[in-house]
Structure formats: C-alpha cells, structure tokens
Amino acid sequence: MRFALAIGTFLILVVHGIVFYNQFGHPWERNQNTYFDQAKVLAKTDAEKAALAARKPRIEQIVVSNFGETRVDRCTTCHIATDDPRFSSHAEPVKTHPYSPTMGDFQKDGKWERRHKFSEFGCTVCHDGQGRGLDAEYSHGKDEYWPDPLLGFVTQDNWRKDHAPKLKGKDYMQANCAQCHTDTAFPGTAMVTRGRQIFFASNCYGCHRIEGLSDGTIGPDLSDVGRKWKLDYLWGRITDPKSILATSIMPKFNLKEEDVKALVVFLKSRKGRNFAETEIQRFKVKLTGGAELVQATIKPVKINPAEMVKQGEKLVLDRACTACHKLGDRDGGIAPDLSFEGSLRDSEWVYAHFKNPKSTMSDSIMPAFRFTDDEFKAMTAYLMTLRGQATPASGEAIYKNLCLRCHGEKGDGHGPIAEHLDPYPRDLTKAGFMNSKSEARLVNSVRNGVNGTSMPAWGKAVSEEQAKAVLGYIQTTFTKEPRRELKAKVIPETNPVAASPESVTRGEALFVNRCAGCHGRKGDGKGPNSLDIQPKPRNLRNSFFVNSVDDKRLFESIQYGVQGTAMPPWIDYGLTNNDVGDLVNFIRSINPKSKGGQHAAAIQ
Amino acid sequence: MSPATPPKASFLTALTDLPKNVWKSIFRNPLPSNDLERSSTSFTNFFLHIHPVKVHKNSLRPAYTLGLGLISFFLFVILIVTGILLMFYYVPSTTQAYDRMLDLRGSVAFGTLLRNMHRWGAHGMVAVVFMHLCRVFFTGSYKKPREFNWVVGVILFLLTLFMSFTGYLLPWDQLAFWAITVGTAIAGYAPVIGKDIQFLLMGGTSVGQEALLRFYVLHVAVLPAVLTLAIAIHFWRIRKDGGLSRAEDADPVVSLEAAPADKASVLEPKKLYGFQGLVRGPLPKVGQIPDNTVFSWPNLFLAELFTFVVTLSAILVLSLLFNAPLEEPVNALHPPNPAKAPWYFLGLQEMVSYSAFWGGIGVPGIFVLLLLGTPYMDRSTKGVGKWFSRDRLLANTIFITFVVANIIFVIIGTFFRGANWAFVTPW
C-alpha cells in the first residue's frame, strides 16, 4: 500500500514536472531569446544593446478593431522579427516580413516603410490563421477544425491529397486583399478579377446568386461562400460537383486548372460583407441588381453580320452552354440535345427562349443569361444551322437517336435528363394512356410537338411514316399491349357555354371545389395531392399548352378522364356539359390569349 | 511592579515556541501513537470527523467496494477546483466563449491542462458514478436500512449526468452546439410537458445566447450546490445507516458468555473514550464480541489517500496525453452529419432513432423509476454484502440486462453510426 502510494505520488510529481516544463519552456520564449541574442550581435550602438538586454520574453499581441470583429493577433510573439529589416535572410519564424512595392511599401530615407502596418492591420486580416494561439500547429490552422488555415500556406490533413498541393501559393491571399480592394480591376487582385470573369463567362451567375453580382436561384447562394468553406471544398465542388454531394445537379465544367484556381480565389473572396462596403453601397447595389456588371466584366462580342453564325458558334461553345446541353460530342447531361435545333424550332422561338426561357416554356429551369441582344441573335443564327444527321428509317433507331434522352431507355419517361424537365416526359409504358389516344393524335404529338413542354415538333426531321414506325416500336417494346378500338365518346365540338364573367365565376367555384386538390387553388398543378401523383397534374397556367388545345380536347379530358393518369372521368361524378363549359371558361380566363401568354408582360 | 509585565525570558520563550504553539493550536493531537490518540485525531479534525473512529474491515476490502464511491467524490473535488479556475477565464457569451477556449488552449498558463483535467474528469465522473451504482446494486447494498440512501444515490447519478450535459455546451463549438441541440430535442419528446421543458432549458426555440447563459448558471452555481448538498446527505446517511453494507456473516456470531481470549484492539478499562470509539450495538456487547473493526487512522485514511492519489494521477496522465476536443466555431446552419449527443446519451439517441417517445422518454423513464423503486420492491434481506449473490439472481439478471443493453446502444451510437444515422462499421 505504502509503496503504491509512493509510486502514485511520484507519478503526480512527474506529470507536474512535464506540465511546468512545457509551460515555462515555451517554444515562443526560445524564439524570442534567439532573436534577442542575434539582434545584440547586430546592434550597432551600446544603447541598442542595453535596450535588447533589458527585454525579456513576453507575449506580443496586436488588437485589431478596424476590420470587422475585433481580432487578437499574437503572431508576432513568435514572428518577432517581422518589422526588423536586418533579419530578411534569416529562417522563419525569426524573419523579416518581406517588403514589396506591389503591396504599397515604399522607401523613405533609404528605409522601407510599410503601407499596411502590422500595428494597424494585424496579421490574420490578410493571412487568415488563428491569431490567438501561441502554438504553431493551432495558430497556423493546421487542425482540421479551424475554419481559416493560413491562406495559401497551410493545407489541412483531411483535404483531398490530389487537391492539396494545388491549394498552396501566395495567389490565394488575393481573396483577402479583395476584402478591402474591391475595384474590379485592382492590379493586386488579378486572380479575383479573372475569377469574376470566369464566373460570368461560364454562366455560373445563371444559377448562383452572389449579392450585388447575380441572382440565380437554381444553385446555392454564394454571397458568403468564402466565409463558409475552405479552399479544398471550393476546389472539389467546382471540379467534381457530385464527389462532394451525390445529389448535386451542378454540371461538370471542364475548366483549365488555372481557371479553377482563379474561380476558387474569387469565391474565397465572397465573404458576405467586406470591410470596404457601407450600408448605402449595399443598398444601391440591391436597387440596380448589378445587371450591368456582367457586361462590365466580360466585354460583349461585337457581332459582325457577315460572321454571325461563326461568332454565334464560338459564343455557344465558349460560354459553357454544353455544360448542360448536348451538342455533338459535348454533353452536359442536364438539358435537351441542341443538335437538331434548326429543324425543331424557328429562330423567333429560340431568340425568345434565350431572352427569357419561361416566355416560351412556362416551367423551364433554364436561367435567363445576360448576353447582349446581338449576341443572342448570333447564337440563334448558329443554332438555326444545326440540323443534325439524316433521320434513320427504323423505329428503334429513331427512338434511340431522338427520344431516349428524355423518355428513357425503358420508355418509362425516366430519361437521363428527365428530372430537369417540367412537365416530366410521358411514360410510354402506360397502356391506359397510349391506347386511349388515336394514332393520329400520337403522330400529331410527335410531328407537331406539345406546346409548353420540352417535346419539340419533330415534323421537319421525322416524316409521317417515320413517326408511325417509331410509334410502332414504342407500342411493341414499351406499351406491350395491342391497340384497341377506341370507344365512341359524346363530346361537344365547341364550348356550349358562352365565355362571360358569370360563367368564369361559376367555373372558379367549381374548380376550387373539385379540381384544386390536385391542380392546386392557383391551377398551377401543385395541389396538396399532387405530391403522390405520377405523372404530375397538368399545370393549367402553362398558357402555351392550354392555348394549343381546343375546347373539344379539354372536354374530353375532363368528362372522360385521362387514362393512365390520376385524372378521373368527371362524367361519373355528375359534371354536366354546362359545368364543364364553365370550367373551361375559367381555365381559359387564367391563360390570356396574347402571344407569350402570362409571361408576355415579363419579357417587356 | 505590575505583575502583568511578562519577564523578558518568557517573551523570548513565547517567540521561540511560536511555531510549535501555532501548530499545536491547529492540530490539537500529536501524530497518534496509541488508540486514544487515533480516535481523538478522527473526531477532533474537521476534515476527518465525518469518518468513524473505527471502521469495519469489510469496508476496507478493495475487492468489495473497488473504491468507486470515493473515486467519484475525488473526481468531483478535482472538477470543482479546475472548474473554479476555469471560471476565471470564461465568459458565457456566444461571441466570446469560443475565443476564450482558444485563449485557454493558446496563451493561458496551464490552460490546456486545466481544460483537459476538467473534461476528462467530467467524463470519468459519469462513468465512475454509474459503476458505483452498479457495484451497490450487485452487492445488494440498497437493502434495509439503506433504502433512502440508494434513492439519494440515484438522484446523484442523474445530477451528475445533468451536470456533465450542461457543461458540454460551454465551449460553444460545433460539437457542443449540436450535442446540446440533440440532447434538448430528446427532452422535447416527453409527453405533454416535453416542449415546455425544452423551451425552459434553451430559453428559446433553438440553442443560442439564452441557452448558453442558462446552462452556465446551472453548471457553475445551481447544480454544484445541489450536488454538494446531496453528497453531504449521502455521506451522512452512510454513517447513520451503520457504515458500508456487509454480509451478515462478516461478524461471527458469538455468545456473550464466551469472552474471547485475544482481541483485535484492546479496550483499556481505565481510559476514556467518546462514543465514537465504540462499535454500534447494545452496550453489554462492547468488548465481548470479536472485534472486526480497525481504527480509521491510519487504515481508512491511508486507503483514501491512496484512492485520491490514483485518481489524481490517472486524470493528470490522461490530461497530458489527450487534449480535450475543440471543433469549429458554432455554425447554426451547418449541422455535422451525424450530429451526436454526448456519449453517455448516445444510448438514448440510438433508441430515439427507433422510436422518439419510447427511446428518449419511455424506456429511460421506466429505468429510472425502477431504479428509484428497487429498494421498496425488493424487500428480501438476503444476499447483502456479496457480489452477485445467488439469492439475488433475478434482480441482478434484470439489472444486468438493462445495463448491457444500454452499453450496447451507447457503443452502437458511438462507433457504428455514420451520416444520416446509417449503420457503418468503424473499420
């Protein structure tokens, strides 16, 4: 017992010894003593030597309150020679911080003067890192939990091994320079400028919002992305979006390494609010939306009418259109194939779609990009020249070439890009739907397209025989049920109820009562039941669709239902033709007839 | 000549005797060399008088108690000392707390050691208190007359958990923030009043400045006071309930007539003793029964000192080898995936992942009620004072089932749960 007691006590003593040794033999004290010794040797006057002899190791700190939240920087405790020019060729940490004219340092009476004095700026404002610590590992932000490791100098252990070497270099510090030097062409922040250009040139702004720069809504807001994420994450998200988040729909942009680096520096400089901004400036940017910034950042291409197609091609290829769309070998895997665009759409449609995608397709997710009018025209002209290859004869080949991208390998509508389309592509395996429509109607859908949806008019590329061939292929391969004779239906040719405000009011009441559960109170197809329904209820505010179908078809769909979908035959639930007439009048009333439908106003 | 004037010589004597006199005025007894002095030392010293003068040999058997109760207490003492020192540096403010942690780690003298000792001491205390509870159960020590002390003990265990839980938030890093978010959410699953308890704890609907302040006050003022009081009651009742439990056959039954020839301690008839010097029981037995007790000085005190030294050195070594974690500063928008409660609540969290009510409130509530009710339901007096007595097979089996289940859940929750609480293997 007594022996064990002695051992235990001894252990306590040993631990205390180690702790005290660590406490009083702190590395920074040794650093400072080294500095004092060497400085004494270099000292020229006795007074200088005496002053050095009187100095004892102590914690040095700079409290910076001018830049954001108050910072306490104790870096100079170890880096004690930062402002002593005699130590310029010594080894870190006892080394002079370099003087550089590009940083604004200047010589006065043969002595360097700093533009950014440490006493005013501290260290972490520019370098990041953890200013409060006195231990190199923690202060430099090497532990994986510290959000801001020394920018461009320190990579953390859990960073991707193949990225880490690329994330070192002084260039990264420009992200912090840009916190104060916000001019778009500031010479010291060339990487930020370049990154901003790429942000616009690669159309990142179409999906991402950065306060004061862009207002995309598809991707995450990047206004304070630099404060939230470390370099490693930014690099990874840009070069391989799905590697970090499997559900990411961000396209993989094939950028050059230098461009990725510039983009990372630019994004790292987005910290929500920088030191240079005032409340008023932020408010002003909010008012203008910053639309002019795109043109200010990337010079618009001057379009020469003679070379319009060529210039358009260059724009389409350079500005990352193929990050989403397919064009020849390039395929972003998100948006439709543009290879046949000249046969499918007319130039008016394409131009309008460019200017405002929703003006030709109500639920398109394509962002409205900020090109100039001339650029849009050139790109339209180029797309009009694309006619693809000659359409093959066999139904199977046609399906694989033209239909598969949306309708899928199994014909079930889950094509590779289907999840980005609204309305969702038709499920061709549903015999209820396929066999309740006449062949003429299906051929019509193929050759003339379905307005307001991603189904284009294939008429110029696919002849009537070819359409029948591909429908035959679909029938045998996917639908798998032979066509039956269609039952005769009693449907009025035109709406028996005249359009009047009273009829619309009656129709609205009926709609809210009977239809809103699936189609939603607004008629936008987003009713409470719509979540569980596949295919989704039709968006009845999609004017391009609603205006392209006649009253007879609306009557048929309502009175006899749509087989293969959740739409029931309302004739069974007691709706008379007059009721349906009111409903049709109501639906027509929420879809103005003018060209462009409800979005006409939005374009102007 | 006034008689009040002391002679010079006696003043000098007073001066030279000053250290001796001061010492004697503080420690009235010399280092004990006989039994009278031994007992006198025990009951005249403020710090020792809580002990009995004589203690049963059974209570000194390390294999019986494992010293767990004492270790818990010493950990509590270490926690109070390091906690008070840490309080000098801490500010319960969402903007400053994390910076203070950085200062503690970076520039405060012995800051890292203090924080480590407090952290590992706290984890250790949760574990040791629970082991102490198990020891008391397995030896059947909660039985009459110790029923209420068992209840106090269970309350102490819950207080310890709550104490550790409230302290978990104070570093204000991601680990703390999300563990408390999860922990308070578990409280929210209680029926009827769950949401109100959650609101009361957090001072709002999410963990923020109010929660930090509340947890701080609970951690440094309210809970330590309550815990200290409960510990005092716990110790006092140990004495009043006749010391530590022991088996009935620990003292051989002897008839009063047959006086043993030799005795473990000799009671000299002419010497004076306080009652503290006498073993419990009817007076005529005194000096007649075989004495299975020994004097606390030095037997008990040395054992206690040894336990203390072992506890302190264990904590010191741990603190030297392992640093208390400090993760990213709080970011309320980026929960780590998975967000985990402190380890001792991971069993609960694991059960919550099956059923919010039963895992978080139902099963643990029943467990606590069973614990509290144990001495009143199990009235048999058999099997006291022996580890895993055969007489207590049923009770021990039920208890072991609960304990092992909880330990398994804690292990699964700690090591086998990854992102989205999906099952992962740690290797």
Overview of this protein structure:
- The complex is a heterodimer of chains A (about 600) and B (about 425).
- Chain A is mainly alpha-helical and about 600 residues long.
- Chain A has helices at about 1-25, 25-40, 45-55, 120, 125, 135-140, 175, 190-200, 225-230, 230-240, 240-245, 255-270, 280-290, 290-295, 310-320, 340-345, 345-355, 375-385, 395-405, 430-435, 440-450, 465-480, 500-515, 515-520, 545, 550-560, 575-590, 600-604, and strands at about 60-65, 70-75, 105-110, 110-115, 210, 215, 325, 330.
- In chain A, the strands form four sheets. Chain A has a two-stranded antiparallel ribbon with strand order 1-2.
- In chain A, a hairpin with a 6-residue loop joins strand 1 (about 60-65) and strand 2.
- Chain A is elongated, with a radius of gyration of 34 Å.
- With about 425 residues, chain B is mostly helical.
- Helix content of chain B is about 60%, strand content about 0%.
- Chain B is built from 15 helices and two strands.
- Chain B has helices spanning about 10-15, 20-25, 35-45, 60-65, 70-85, 95-105, 110-140, 145-170, 175-185, 195-200, 210-240, 295-320, 345-350, 355-375, 395-415; strands at about 55, 295.
- Chain B has a two-stranded antiparallel sheet with strand order 1-2.
- In chain B, helix 8 (about 145-170) runs antiparallel to helix 11, helix 8 (about 145-170) packs antiparallel against helix 14 and helix 13 crosses helix 14 (about 355-375).
- The radius of gyration of chain B is 26 Å and the shape is globular.
- Chain B starts with 7 loop residues before the first helix and ends in a 12-residue tail after the last helix.
- Residues about 280-285 of chain B have low confidence and may be disordered.
- The interface between A and B is medium-sized, with 28 and 29 residues.
